[in-house]
Specification:
Layout (H helix, E strand, L loop, with lengths): L5 H8 L24 H6 L9 E2 L7 E10 L3 H12 L4 E5 L6 H5 L3 E3 L4 H4 L7 H9 L8 H9 L1 H10 L4 E3 L12 E4 L2 H14 L4 E5 L1 E8 L6 E8 L2 E12 L8 H7 L7 E2 L8 H8 L4 E2 L2 E10 L9 H4 L3 E3 L13 H9 L6 E5 L1 H6 L3 H7 L3 E3 L2 H8 L3 H17 L17 E13 L2 E2 L6 E3 L5 E7 L11 E2 L6 H19 L20
Parallel strand pairs: 1-8, 2-3, 2-10, 3-7, 10-20, 11-17, 13-21
Antiparallel strand pairs: 4-6, 5-6, 8-9, 9-10, 12-18, 13-17, 14-15, 15-17, 16-17, 19-20
């Protein structure tokens, strides 16, 4: 069987280039599950599953049927349902919680996008290659380039497509950290505004049947082979089975699953969880037992600026503008000018996972949130370093030395942590707010090609199964908190749309692994 090329897909599905998947993953890393034997998978013999059930095992349940079943109603699932319906498919969209939105609702509603009308109003010097390099830089270029190129190639289209479903995008005025061009797009109303628009479009589409508080509990396999033919669970309290030509998993990550978090991201266990309630990882487990390759399972998005005393995300700009972070002893422990996610494990590694963001009037005057912090009563003060140390409960001598060292570094233009983005001065009075780290979502999951087909460890497809969003292999890093803003959301939107279209147009069993091909549009600048 020949592989699908970019031109085949452009002709058949009207979406962009596909990822190199046949013959193994681009990263070449060993899967967490052993490669499945295709002959055994085809026969369905000799296998006992914890989650999956055969058709004959769900015969006593109420039956529903659609061309495409989408499990999970966050950004990826909403896009998959809309995209499948646009291809003429009937769709059942199941969400286990009582509301759609998932992690997308909690997001800032930001994605990097190249070549949109909004971006071209600001600059015309950007390129797909430049954006790809920016996204891959935090991982030291260790993630799959085919995944990254695909989302960047499709970034303009996803902005325009979601605009057709009611979203409103603007380009941020600031050059976002880690991005070398003005390309960060934000939806009106942030993540809530985006999901509200998508939900309204889903509810207005006759071909989509929505089921809230519908908890699917596993996949359904053909009696004779390990081919996915739907899923089973409970619609409210009623046991149901949904049969479909193809099934799309959009079940989110596992940041709200303590056991999986302990297994894969132990350093993030103490973090404050700012995560979707439904991010419990079951879709990943369902796919894993069918032989799906799991990749980048130790990767996650963190945030180093969670206010301990107000239980809110603080303002990173105070650090960017020259503030420093010390631990309970009064010592600095990192360069405070950096990615908010990358800094989170540094904060969590301190005694009790606590840091203090310390700053002066220079940072206070530029802060958008200082007045709010004062009203909330979370600001600690000191007329000199000794007084602020007492307010923090730190060793005065250590904190005074920390401040003195920083002041000297400002004079030389670089400090011992190689920080060169320094303020003009760091003079009293001093202020501080208490912080710890957050986890926002995980960035690992089942491997797919970028047609959304779920891949086994040997590169073969699990027939009838597609996936998108937080339950799939991310491209932020191989493990840890390296992250570029917008990665999770653009992955969910683009691959949700792609997986939905593929699931709607490919007969079960006819799908083939897809190849991504680089072209002139992918060039750097």
């Amino acid at each position: 069987m020949s592989n699908v090329t970019r031109r085949d897909v452009l002709k058949g599905f009207a979406f962009g280039s596909l990822a190199m998947a046949a013959g193994g993953l681009a990263t070449g890393c060993a899967p967490t599950a052993p490669a499945s034997d295709e002959a055994l998978a085809a026969s369905g013999e000799g296998r006992a599953y914890r989650f999956a059930k055969r058709v004959s095992e769900v015969a006593d349940r109420a039956e529903l049927e659609a061309d495409v079943l989408v499990i999970g109603g966050g950004g990826a699932g909403l896009c998959a349902a809309l995209s499948a319906a646009e291809q003429g498919a009937t769709v059942i969209l199941c969400e286990k919680t009582s509301a759609f939105g998932g992690a997308t609702t909690l997001s800032s509603g930001k994605i990097p996008a190249v070549g949109t009308a909004q971006q071209l109003e600001k600059e015309d010097g950007d390129s797909i290659g430049a954006c790809v390099m920016d996204i891959m830089r935090p991982s030291n270029y260790s993630v799959r380039p085919d995944l990254v190129y695909t989302v960047v190639e499709q970034s303009r289209d996803i902005v325009e497509w979601t605009e057709g479903h009611g979203a409103v995008w603007t380009v941020d005025d600031a050059l976002y950290y880690g991005q070398t061009a003005y390309r960060m797009h934000t939806t009106d109303g942030a993540g809530t505004g985006l999901t509200d628009a998508l939900i309204a479009s889903v509810n207005g589409t006759e071909a989509i049947e929505t089921l809230l508080s519908c908890e699917m509990q596993g996949l359904v396999l053909d009696d004779e082979a390990d081919v996915v033919v739907g899923a089973y669970g409970k619609n409210g309290s009623e046991p149901i089975v949904v049969f479909a030509e193809n099934t799309v998993l959009a079940t989110s990550g596992f940041a709200n699953n303590p056991d999986m978090l302990e297994q894969y991201c132990p350093e993030a266990v103490p973090a404050v969880k700012v995560v979707a309630p439904g991010a419990t990882g079951e879709g990943i487990l369902w796919a894993e037992e069918l032989g799906a390759s799991l990749q980048n399972m130790g990767a996650y998005q963190g945030h180093a600026f969670h206010g301990v005393d107000n239980d809110k995300t603080l303002e990173q700009g105070v650090a960017n503008n020259g503030g420093i972070i010390v631990n309970q002893d009064g010592n600095r422990f990192m360069n405070e000018y950096g990615g908010y996610s990358e800094m989170s494990p540094h904060v969590l590694a301190q005694p009790d996972g606590i840091g203090y963001l310390c700053f002066t009037d220079l940072q206070r005057e530029q802060s958008k949130k200082f007045a709010e912090w004062e009203e909330e009563g979370i600001v600690l003060r000191g007329n000199d370093a000794s007084q602020l140390a007492a307010a923090i409960g730190a060793d005065p001598a250590k904190f005074e030395r920390t401040v003195s060292d920083y002041q000297k570094a400002i004079g030389t233009g670089m400090d011992k942590f190689n920080r060169s983005h320094l303020p003009a001065s760091f003079e009293p009075p001093f202020y501080a707010v208490k912080l710890t780290g957050e986890i926002r979502h995980t960035q690992g999951g089942m491997a797919t090609d970028v047609a959304g087909h779920v891949l086994r460890g040997d590169g073969s497809l699990i027939e009838g199964l597609y996936a998108a969003g937080g339950c799939t292999e991310g491209f932020s890093c191989r493990g840890g908190a390296a992250y570029m803003s917008g990665n999770g959301l653009i992955q969910a939107l683009v691959f949700g749309k792609i997986a939905g279209a593929a699931a709607a147009t490919e007969p079960r069993g006819a799908a083939e692994a897809a190849l991504w091909e680089k072209t002139d549009i992918d060039a750097y600048l």
